[in-house]
Write a structure and sequence with these properties.
This is LamG domain-containing protein. By secondary structure, this protein is mainly β. It is 11% helix and 34% strand. It is built from 2 helices and 15 strands.
C-alpha cells in the first residue's frame, strides 16, 4: 500500500485510513478483507496506459511536449506534432484537457509501447469533447491504416472500433452533438464479443466483425483528430464487468458524464 499515492479519486484514502486505524488502535479492521472496501482502480489487472490532463505541469495554452503515463508501465507520450494544454479555459467539468487540432496534425505517440500486445482482447475508457468536423482517431495501437487497433469517433458521431484501414470491428451511432462531452468505454474479449458503453450505459454487445490486429506504436490523434481529451485508460485485456463499472463510475464522477448507481 502506497500512503503517498498520487491518485486522487478517494479509494486509496479509504485504505490509508484503514491502515492508520489498524496501527493506532490495533482494531478489528486489521482482519477485514480489503475486497469489501470501495473500488480501487489501482487493483484492476492489465492496465498498460493511463493519461490524464489534470496534473500536467503546464501553463494554460502551452504545448504538450510530454504526457506521462500514470499506469506505471512507462508508456509516456511525446509529440509528433504537439497538441495544446488548457486548464483555465476549454475545461471539462472544471478539469483540464489537451486539445488536438486536425488541421495542425497534432498527435502524441509512444514507439514500441511496453506491455501492449497485438491481442484481440483489450479495454479502453476515455472522456472527450469533439466538434465533429472530421473523423477523429482517439487511440491507435499499431499502424494507422495498417490493421492496428483504432478507436475512432466519426464526424457523424459514430463510435467505432476499427481494424485500421481494413474493417469496422464494432460501432455505435451515438447521436453525438457537436461540442458535447461524452464518456466512451469499449471492451473486446478476443474474437468472442465487443461491448460499447456510452456515458456508462451499455449500448452494443456483438461479435467482432474482424480480429487479428497488427502490433506497433501507441498514439493519440494518429491519422488525425479534432478533440479535447481529458483522460484515457487502456487495459491489455477484457476487464471484468465489475471493474468496468468501477472505472465508468470513476470517470463519471470526475467529469460529470455518468451518474453512478
Amino acid at each position: 500500500m502506497d500512503l503517498n499515492s498520487p491518485y486522487e479519486f478517494g479509494t486509496n484514502e479509504y485504505y490509508k485510513n484503514q491502515l492508520i486505524s489498524c496501527i493506532i488502535n490495533r482494531s478489528s479492521v486489521c482482519n477485514q478483507n480489503v475486497s469489501n472496501g470501495p473500488f480501487d482502480l489501482n487493483q484492476v489487472p492489465g492496465r498498460k496506459f493511463w493519461i490524464r490532463a489534470e496534473g500536467l505541469p503546464l501553463a494554460n495554452g502551452t504545448t504538450v511536449i510530454s504526457w506521462t503515463d500514470l499506469s506505471g508501465t512507462g508508456n509516456d507520450l511525446i509529440p509528433g506534432v504537439a497538441p495544446t494544454f488548457y486548464s483555465a479555459t476549454n475545461t471539462i467539468n472544471g478539469k483540464p484537457i489537451v486539445r488536438f487540432l486536425y488541421g495542425s496534425g497534432n498527435n502524441l505517440l509512444k514507439t514500441s509501447p511496453v506491455g501492449v500486445s497485438a491481442s484481440d482482447s483489450g479495454s479502453v475508457f476515455f472522456v472527450v469533447r469533439l466538434p465533429l468536423t472530421v473523423n477523429s482517431n482517439v487511440l491507435t495501437i499499431g499502424t494507422s491504416g495498417g490493421a492496428g487497433r483504432e478507436v475512432q469517433i466519426t464526424a457523424g458521431g459514430i463510435v467505432a472500433l476499427n481494424k485500421s484501414g481494413s474493417f469496422t470491428v464494432a460501432s455505435y451511432n451515438s447521436g453525438w452533438v457537436a461540442n458535447a462531452v461524452h464518456q466512451v468505454s469499449i471492451l473486446q474479449n478476443g474474437g468472442t464479443n465487443v461491448v460499447i458503453k456510452f456515458d456508462g450505459v451499455q449500448v452494443v454487445s456483438t461479435v467482432p466483425a474482424a480480429t487479428g490486429y497488427a502490433a506497433g506504436n501507441l498514439g493519440l490523434g494518429i491519422g488525425g483528430a479534432e478533440m479535447d481529451l481529458a483522460e484515457l485508460l487502456y487495459f491489455d485485456n477484457r476487464v471484468s464487468d465489475e471493474n468496468a463499472t468501477g472505472i465508468d463510475c470513476y470517470l463519471g464522477k470526475r467529469y460529470g458524464t455518468f451518474n453512478c448507481p
